[in-house]
Design brief:
alpha+beta; two-stranded parallel ribbon; two-stranded antiparallel ribbon; 4 strands; 33% strand
Length: 54
Amino acid sequence: MLTFGETMIALGGTGPLKLSGTMDVSTAGTESNVAIGLARLGHAVRWAGIVGDG
């Protein structure tokens, strides 16, 4: 299985950072979630993306 698309970062906090709260970082995006789910089910998967010039 090959997925194409963008991967995003999901940030989730437990409280205000200025009061020593923590920040959790995880992956997000439909294509990434599908690839992760299929890999957890035992399928061989690959993900492909591209980064622009800026």
